[in-house]
Amino acid sequence: xxxxxEEVPENCSSIQDEEHDADISKHRQKIAENKDQMRTNVxxxxxxxxxxxxxxxxxxxxxxxxxxxxxxGMFTTAQLNTIFGNIEDIYKFQRKFLKDLEKxxxxxxxxxxxxGTCFLQHQEGFAIYSEYCNNHPSACIELSxxxxxxxxxxxFEACRLLQQMIDIAIDGFLLTxxxxxxxxxxxxxxxxxxxxxxx
Length: 199
Fold this sequence. Notes:
InterPro entries: DBL_dom_sf, DH_dom. This protein has 199 residues and is an all-alpha fold.
């Protein structure tokens, strides 16, 4: 009896070791899959926010700036430069950036997308945001002066409706580039968190 009792644990322990190894292996696989899923989520968030942002920039350039330029009696060139800054340059830059991001995006396996290179290739281009951000307080002052008059409030609202833009006032739209440039470091930090060393 005693001999049998001693032998059984030996056999059991080797079976238990195998089961334990299999559990660890499954657990590791689950963690890896989870990490891939998290990375997919971050990549898709970056891609989606980029597409929405381009739409906002397009709306500002075509919905507001184009209409304002037609009404020379209402706006001077200097006023438009103050209000909109270099947002048209930003729109041009971001279109190119998005195009390159789309090329790097892996539709079949999004977690394998290598979008870091896009940020490195365009790092100097992002410098155009400093001009826009530095000008933003002046834009807000100029805009609030105009908004005290009913005709300007109605004009900007008409532009928004004509372009079928979402229900945000013009100052909200003009804040988006400032918010966007601040969001990139957060998105990249999140991406890095779910990126393996060997990626």
